[in-house]
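This protein record is not my work; I was only asked to verify it. Take the sequence as given and treat only the tokens as open to question. I have pasted the whole thing underneath without changing anything:
***
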Amino acid sequence: CQWLRSRSLALPVLMLTSKDRVEDRIAGLDSGADDYLVKPFSMAELLARMRALRRRSPELKPTRIQKGPLLLDCDRRVAILNSGTASEKLIELTQKEFMLLQYFMEHPNQIVTREQVLNQLWEFGAEHNSNVVAAQMRLLRRKLEQYGHLIETVYGMGYRFNHSE
């Protein structure tokens, strides 16, 4: 945990340990942990604490994500294409398209399933038809297609944001 924090890696850290003395808890939290849970613990409590960490995690996300010539400015909520020249091209995206592109750029070269997209971008229990992800993907791809095939379908599995450093 200290190694992560010394390198300014802002990953949420939940310590699970059998050390239950107050001094141990203080040492764990002072080393950079965001939360501390002593074994044995209930699974419901662990899940609740993980949800709480996740609610706080947007503060930990970078404000700009750059993958090749594509830059996502999360503060201004805009996507910018910079081909290495002085000219930049602003890509107009809806809020949902922006969130979708941000999720893919945060997970480059990884296969992302339809269920993962639904869980990340739509409210739990929200009514949505079966093709809502495919429809959003179509709209986003249409706006990005002139810049190459950035998001591919991996048939039977999901989607992947293609990026090589």
Remarks:
- The chain has a mean pLDDT of 83.
